[in-house]
């Protein structure tokens, strides 16, 4: 299990879209990958939990978090080998840890926590809650957006992760994210 949660070495810059549900992470992930002619790592939890909902009419439970983490890292490790520029991650294990702690009485599986803290990224983009809420089968906290945002921001601060706050419309967020990624790419050269 632990081997499957390890981040493999790669030759690319890794950025993470990080924040509460329905804040534009997937949209921006796709935009950034397109802008850099690169790849993006989708949120494995979305596929996993949508299948669970469709087949069992059940939502996420603590027992789902490790399989979600394994699936996320499998995707990330595979896709990191397909680019030498920028890998855009729609989420990471630290996000899964934050969800675990906020949904399940402050708890997180120790193995998940270990790799959430061990795996590293060049930059996080923290997405603010100034986007419209869009309901779907999986989203469930429309009235707790600010509390969730604060939990995500506190995790970045607590674990000393480099991050940039993204606010505004799609174009403003994309422009700001590109400016920071361009700086990372220039430093890499």
What portion of residues is helical? 40-55%
Specify the structural class. alpha/beta
The count of helical stretches stands at 8
Unreliably modeled segments: none
- Overall mean confidence score, pLDDT: 94
Question: Approximately how much beta-strand content do the residues carry?
Answer: 5-15%
Q: Order of strands in the sheet with the most strands?
A: 2-3-1-4-5
**What is the first-to-last residue Cα distance?**
36 Å
Sketch the topology as an H/E string, one letter per element: HEHEHHEHHEHEH
Q: How many DSSP E strands? A: 5
Largest sheet: 5 strands, parallel
From the spread of the alpha carbons, the general shape counts as globular
**Compute the gyration radius: what is it?**
16 Å
Key attributes of the depicted protein:
189 residues, single chain, five-stranded parallel beta sheet, alpha/beta, 8 helices
Walkthrough of the structure:
Helix content is 51%, strand content 12%. It is of the alpha/beta class. Strands 2-3-1-4-5 form a five-stranded parallel beta sheet, with helices on both faces. Strand 4 (123-127), helix 7 (145-158) and strand 5 form a beta-alpha-beta unit. The termini are far apart. The mean pLDDT is 94.
List the helices and strands and how they pair.
Layout: H1 2-5, E1 13-18, H2 25-35, E2 39-41, H3 44-56, H4 65-80, E3 86-89, H5 93-103, H6 110-118, E4 123-127, H7 145-158, E5 163-166, H8 170-188
Parallel strand pairs: 1-3, 1-4, 2-3, 4-5
């Amino acid at each position: 299990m632990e081997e499957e949660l390890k981040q493999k070495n790669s030759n690319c810059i890794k950025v993470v879209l990080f924040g509460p549900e329905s804040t534009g992470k997937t949209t921006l992930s796709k935009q950034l990958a397109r802008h850099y002619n690169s790849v993006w790592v989708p949120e494995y939890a979305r596929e996993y939990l949508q299948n669970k909902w469709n087949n069992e009419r059940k939502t996420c439970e603590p027992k789902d978090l490790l399989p979600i983490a394994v699936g996320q890292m499998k995707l990330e490790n595979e896709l990191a080998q397909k680019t030498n520029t920028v890998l855009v991650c729609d989420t990471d294990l630290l996000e899964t840890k934050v969800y675990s702690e906020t949904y399940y009485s402050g708890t997180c599986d120790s193995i998940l926590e270990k790799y959430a803290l061990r795996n590293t990224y060049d930059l996080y983009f923290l997405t603010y809650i100034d986007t419209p809420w869009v309901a779907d089968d999986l989203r469930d906290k429309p009235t707790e957006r600010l509390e969730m945002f604060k939990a995500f921001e506190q995790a970045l601060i607590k674990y000393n992760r480099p991050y940039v706050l993204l606010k505004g419309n799609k174009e403003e967020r994309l422009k700001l994210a590109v400016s920071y990624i361009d700086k990372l790419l220039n430093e890499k050269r």
